[in-house]
């Protein structure tokens, strides 16, 4: 029983990381209708920045986190400006391929700068593990912090979107770009802001991920990126609560199937669940059904 | 025969002409001995990628669905055909017959899997279809990596756990050994066979596109509801297109499996990255354009090899080239810019 709870908690923690990454995917999808394949690699850049700031420059932890977020924000906006903005009215596939190109570019830049050897990331969490029920249940500090950060991000993001003017502008642009611009919303600035927020969240997710799994390579972001993408689709892409539910569900599923069924087949199980969910509810758990008109 | 039909068949036969010409030229250089060993090693992969590109183009370009699991079908074709070849290894049949059997098995298993996956999946649309096909590709790779398959006198043994779960009897051999895959596959593939298969795939796919069925599929792509209202069986046609494409990916897998002596399901050769790479060939070559797909597959496979002298920078340059090509071919502002320049040239011609 205790081991089950501990697997469940670490699943929720992994799920929180997926959820934070999935938010970036889902917000960008909602507003720009594109799959940002480079999102996982922005996460990787954020982790490397945090690694350099903390391990090599010796900055204090809050500063290192802020620096990493700033670098990712700038990178996200830059990518949007150079690679995605010129293609805004182009074929959706063209944008997808460009995003894949950006992903390759970031991975190979990191490969040149840092080599393929894994860097051992020092955990940013300095909380000692919590022991419950006489030492039978040990919860690591990383797990606790990740879950708390995930919940905080969820609350603040929802507040931001529903209570501030900028958030309302984001909603308006995702509903109808043309109408939003007629109402005086600066569409370009709003899209840039969405990329900025998504990228900053990716850097947070990267630091949390590398604190829990401390091996950092140029492809660190690739698999979590794909999983988070799956989580976003599972929850209904474009929906923010959906991204959270999808992420946490995916994390729990992955950890439990690793623990109880087979560690080799855990990916297959996670992806099968996605397929089953989409077959029952083709737009994801919280996705809206769009009626088609002739 | 009206003019458009005539133009179509001209286009089709031009493609075969180009392929045969390329084959003859390469053969000439091979005979003359002026092809480096690196290039020789690339000839079969070029055929494999070209077949993959034109078969994916059938789904993406003709039926208009986004599939990110093409490498999964290639994986199934490769492993089923390699298993078949391993089982028949000592049978004493001539190699060409063995290869034909392997080809049949590979294409059939990938095609059948295409139908099985297509039935539930093709109900989804757009990005959802893309993510589900991606998921299927990963599941296939994951399952094969965990699969153990051995043969002894008592028959066939399967396990999804580990090699200890099967105790093979005397004289028993492992066929698939989990993540180690299959070792000792016979080498049947060569450039001639690759080229023959490429041309055959081209013939089949092009004639399919221009047949009545192919035109019906394109009608569904352009307007599903309108096509449905004139009585086209939408699901059946989409499924047909999807499974044909899967079967050809299986054929590419057969070529792949019999080109090297060992076969493993690595993320590099059968993962989603490979599927994306094939999609890049299709999109860059022009969606729906078979000649473009092959050209893009050849250029993008050769480019990293040409840049080999630049070592670490080659993939970086590759990525930059990819982004720039997409911007140049698809960005509305670039297209307008190109048209402007073209118009200036035309005006000059008129005035001159």
TrEMBL record, chain A:
Signal peptide: none
Keywords of this entry: Amino-acid transport, Cell inner membrane, Cell membrane, Membrane, Transmembrane, Transmembrane helix, Transport
Pfam families membership: BPD_transp_2 (PF02653)
GO function term, MF aspect, one: L-isoleucine transmembrane transporter activity
GO biological process: D-alanine transmembrane transport; L-alanine transport; L-isoleucine import across plasma membrane
Subcellular location per the Swiss-Prot or TrEMBL entry: Cell membrane
Highest taxon, organism lineage: Bacteria
Membrane topology, from the record: Multi-pass membrane protein
Residues passing through the membrane, by range: 6-28, 60-79, 91-117, 137-161, 182-209, 229-253, 265-286
Primary localization: membrane
Protein name: Branched-chain amino acid ABC transporter permease
PANTHER family cross-referenced by the UniProt entry: BRANCHED-CHAIN AMINO ACID TRANSPORT SYSTEM PERMEASE PROTEIN LIVH, HIGH-AFFINITY BRANCHED-CHAIN AMINO ACID TRANSPORT SYSTEM PERMEASE PROTEIN LIVH
Keyword Hydrolase belongs to the record: no
GO cellular component: plasma membrane
Family note: Belongs to the binding-protein-dependent transport system permease family. LivHM subfamily.
Entry keyword Cell inner membrane: yes
Automatic annotation (TrEMBL), chain B:
UniProt key word Transmembrane helix: yes
Subcellular location as annotated: Cell membrane
Gene Ontology molecular function: branched-chain amino acid transmembrane transporter activity
Record has Transmembrane helix as a keyword: yes
Bilayer topology annotation: Multi-pass membrane protein
Any single GO CC term annotated in Swiss-Prot or TrEMBL for this entry: plasma membrane
Protein name: Branched-chain amino acid ABC transporter permease
Keywords per UniProt: Cell membrane, Membrane, Transmembrane, Transmembrane helix
Transmembrane segments: 12-30, 42-62, 95-122, 128-151, 191-209, 237-257, 278-303, 315-337
InterPro entries: ABC_transp_permease (IPR001851), LivM-like (IPR043428)
Source domain of life: Bacteria
UniProt source species: Oribacterium asaccharolyticum ACB7
Signal peptide: none
